[in-house]
Amino acid sequence: MHSKGRRLPPLLVVALIAVPLGAAIAGRDAYIALIVPTIAAVLGLLALCRALDERGAGQAEDRRVLRWTVSAFAAHLLFGLVVTNTPSAVYYLGGDAGTYHTYARWIAEFGTRSIPGGLQTGKEGFYYTLATLYRVFGFHPASGLVLNAALGAALVPVLTDATRRLFGRDAAHWVAPVVVLFPSMFLFTSQLLKEAPIVFLLAVALNAAVRIAERLTLGGVGVLTLSVALLLTFRGPIAMVAGIALIGGIALGRRQVLSGLVTGLIVVMVLAVVVIGIGVGHSGVQSALQSSSLQDANRVRTGLAYDAGSGIGGNVDTSTARQALSYLPVGLARFALGPFPWEFRKPSQLPALIDVLVLWWLAPKAWRGFRTAARNHGRRLAVFLLPAIATATVLSLSVGNLGVLVRERLQVLILVVPLLAYGISLRPGTGTEPAPEQVPGAPALVA
Length: 447
Description:
Blueprint (H helix, E strand, L loop, with lengths): L1 H5 L1 H19 L4 H21 L7 H26 L2 H7 L2 H15 L14 H13 L3 H27 L1 H4 L2 H7 L1 H8 L4 H20 L3 H14 L4 H18 L3 H22 L3 H9 L3 H12 L15 H17 L13 H26 L5 H15 L5 H7 L1 H16 L22
Helix pairs in contact: 2-3, 2-4, 3-4, 3-8, 4-8, 4-11, 6-7, 8-10, 8-11, 8-12, 8-22, 12-13, 12-14, 12-22, 13-15, 14-15, 14-16, 14-20, 18-20, 19-22, 20-22
């Protein structure tokens, strides 16, 4: 009874502050579209936190994860409601939100075939998700904001569990502040944008991959397959790259190479059945295959470079393999640590500088974490490093805009959160773990 009593304050915060205030902001007509999904979201987050509790870790740490999760949900939801009901803020922070709302409403009212030109394959998932919510709760963005707030908050327990399995409890302790307080992570997952479901599905896929690398289970394979298949409907090309790299990371990350190869083959077969046999994510595979050339990536990057006065690298040509390889070191450096101060051209772009400064502050910690993890954990790092590197490589060749760079980088950051948290947990100058964990070992990456 005492344990349950300690869980009430976060719920009261959401029920007594977030929901009534959000309803007042959204308007009386949207009250049902806000309150009912909010109750369902809070219950779902509670169930997720309970399911991912570390048995034997102590109730204090479990309650801490719960507090961060529910507080993150309330903060995401309130921020999203304020922005959505402030037209100038929508235009400045996430103009695509209006497009998603309009198309989803159109689908809910008249069906997909009524949209001129149809939806772009491999990106239709978010439209259908919003349309489903609108059919149930009416044409109010509030229900979509609740969903995104819940998915953004769910990153805390999902990544905490993955980090704990990789690097232990001390590293897992730092996941919540990294996920919740990183500027772009909070900003783009709070609005009516598809970043929240994309990074959530990537986090779930990473968690499942870490579990499979430890021990092959039917549940782990099922979760990984479903998350990648759904991701193919939100952002096909990235899902294709990250999914293949995650499977490769599992194969390399297991203790025995042969066992890893067999495990990877099993995951590939199950994923093929879901995508090809059932059809979930099939359009995303088609989209990825049709737009996977260097010429397409160069065309996208060049178009972004001359858009809205915030382009970068507009004079670079990466349409051939040789040109792409020569640009890749610069592109990766810019993608990982940019935009650089000299690339900002107007005051409206300065908020992105906050994101960059936080990233620069975390970079040395990530490097310290990598060096120590390479010695102590070996090939286990491939589970998240391989998809992170593959995704960063693809995006660095197609991103040519400051705003898009900050937004797209989330798909890589979410994969390296365990490494960032691990680096923060290490004592500077020692490169040693504060509390070694009993985790499966693997051959070292470096001597």
